Amino acid sequence: AMEKSYMSVFLLLIVISCTLAKDVGKKETKETTAKPKLPQTLSRGWGDQLIWTQTYEEALFRAKHSNKPLMIIHHLEDCPHSQALKKAFAEHKDIQKLAEKFILLNLVYETTDKNLAPDGQYVPRILFIDPSLTVRADITGRYSNRLYAYEPSDISLLYSNMQKAQKLLKTEL
Fold it and tell me: Where does the chain have alpha helices with state H?
């Protein structure tokens, strides 16, 4: 019974924060012309208008309950490869649009979940997890030594991999 009430409170908090986030978004559009919008801290520059989750646990919970795939971007602020990929990702209009159909998480630290580093802890690396919470190890980039690495020149491959993560969702669930 105690667990159920904790879960209810947790869900209530998520609903409230989502509602508040939506309200903030509505207000911002009116004010954008007046003053520049401050970047959303959770996006870390990967797409300030996108909704980002704060923790891996929250992202898994939201993926499972929203039936959306989860896209996890591992990167470091002082890594030139991460910075270059972030710029390409943020400027790619189609990727930004498609990213709205994902639960999004970008991490500047490693998680303890070994499934998120199937072939090592390098950055930048992007993994997809379906709503059944299965890591899609089959959705890879073009490097055989770093399967989940992407470079700015791979942005169209990343886009098609995002489409693949969406398609697999419809056919498998």
Answer: 2-31, 56-66, 80-91, 93-99, 155-172
Q: Are 162 and 155 contacting, i.e. CB atoms less than 8 angstroms apart?
A: no
Whether 107 maps to a domain, the answer reads yes
Cα–Cα distance between 37 and 29 in angstroms, integer? 9
Supply 163's token pair. Answer: 């489409």
Q: Cβ of 107: how many Cβ atoms within 10 Å?
A: 18
The answer as to whether 173 is a domain residue is no
Q: Give the CATH number of the domain where residue 137 resides.
A: 3.40.30.10
Model confidence pLDDT, tens digit, residues 94-147? 999 999 999 999 999 887 888 899 999 999 999 999 999 999 999 999 999 999
pTM attached to this predicted model: 0.74
Structural domain range at position 157: 54-112+125-164
Q: What is the pLDDT of residues 69-88, one digit of tens each?
A: 999 999 999 999 999 999 99
